[in-house]
Amino acid sequence: MAVEWAGSGPELLFTIDRESGAGLRAQLEEQLRDAICGGRLAGGERLPSSRELARALGLSRGLVQDCYAQLQAEGYLTSRPGSATRVAAVARRAAPPRAGTQAPPRPALADFRHGVPDLRLAPREDWAWAVREVCRTAPNTAFDYGDPAGDRQLREVLAAYLRRVRAVAATAEQVVVCTGMAQALGLVLRALAAGGIGTLAFEDPGAVRSTAGQANAAGLTVVPVPVDEDGLDVGALDDCGARAVLVTPAHQWPTGVVLAGHRRQELLAWARRRDGVVIEDDYDAEFRYDRDPVGSLQGLDPDHVVSLGTVSKSLAPALRLGWLVAPGRLLPAVARDKLVSDRGSPGLDQLALALLIESGRYDRHLRRARAEYAARRRTLVDALAAHAPGLRVTGLAAGFHAILHLPPGTDEARVIEQARQRGVGLYGLAPLHHAPGPRPPRLVLGFGDTPQHTIEPAIAAVADLLRG
């Protein structure tokens, strides 16, 4: 799709060399052809008016008009009376491959993808209000480069919020504002590597690919540690020899189990004995339904635990705001790395988040979102009970995904493929393990970004596949 530029003269970067000996019109024609064939100008894209291009390049308008006419005759350009000159739709090469990956099209009936909140619930009006207020009231200094560790006001607000809601032992000096959870983890891992730690343990199953990628980029090797019904197996952690471990104790990703009280104590004893570091990913602790909230592990031992948080689940991933709360021994290395990485996360967005939290609008949004996810959770449980009775559903105490245990012997991959052919997106647990191997077939059913009215019809459409 061509971009529709506003105004009569969208700029083009062309260079006319009056000392080259080549004709001025020939130079302009050649550069226009190259820009069209090379993909700089897309099919349907509007060119500057002949008057504007002539003014910008110091040429006569008649020369530019002659150039446009020649390229129109060759099929590179199109023009109609009263309309702008545009690149012809067929006068271009195949578009070069785009950087990054594009998400596949979403299934037609319902998509139970996990890890994403309801993007429709993003508090657009509240965020717009906070940004407007910040732009209206912030001093001029707020528009300058800020502290790479984060705006002082947001760090104060976050420390107070985390103390109140998550029982984190935090002061503003311990908080570093980051561009999302991924950057926060990368900063911590590089600080650990600089301090002589060479191995990172992580939960298995878990965020295997992203964790391994981050660890390898920091120069760390990784070792998986199994998870059971009580959470991370601390005995296996002790045996692996690592001095750092990444855990999701409040709601293990993806199994949903809560790290049991005795395991929490064992894990902290391991950290003290090994002089190790526990990295606590507190990714969705705001959304809890059937039991009282579980406090942060960091609050029990702030000298050995780093707490990571983000608004990607509570507000929206696009905001790219997160934080870490680190012990004093790691802060200098983290702060230096943050300075080198990006000189600080967007300052006005930080002030907007601080205002959103202080004003109570953040808590109000969380209450609305919690009620919505709880309703979808009930709909999912009811739909499974009606259409696939007898199948065990776990991991529902918090967050917005569930684990569905399929009948023994079920081909997990085949169920997923056949469901997609029926317009339902299902996702297996097998890819979230460190290594392939025979395991009980299970599905991760996300309902964060799955509209409530689509849940029951989708489960009904694949019920026979789920029952085996």
Task: Spell out the key features of this protein.
single chain, 468 residues, alpha/beta, eight-stranded mixed beta sheet, three-stranded antiparallel beta sheet, 15 helices, 15 strands
What report would you give on this structure?
- This protein is α/β, with parallel strands linked by helices and 468 residues long.
- Helices cover 40% and strands 13% of the residues.
- It contains 15 helices and 15 strands.
- Strands 4-11-10-9-8-5-6-7 form an eight-stranded mixed sheet, sandwiched between helices. A three-stranded antiparallel sheet has the order 12-13-15, with no helix packed on it.
- β8, α9 and β9 (277-281) form a beta-alpha-beta unit.
- α2 (50-57) crosses α3, α5 (152-166) crosses α11 and α6 (180-194) packs across α10.
- The mean pLDDT is 91.
Share of helix among residues? 25-40%
Give the spatial strand order of the biggest sheet: 4-11-10-9-8-5-6-7
Strand content: 5-15%
**Terminal CA distance:** 44 Å
| Total number of helices | 15
Evaluate the radius of gyration. Answer: 28 Å
Sheet with the most strands?
Answer: 8 strands, mixed
Order of H and E elements = HHHEEEHHEHEHEEHEHEEEHHHEEHEEHH
Mean of residue pLDDT values: 91
Q: What would you call the shape?
A: globular
Structural class: alpha/beta
Number of strands: 15
**Any low-confidence stretches, pLDDT <50, length ≥5?**
none
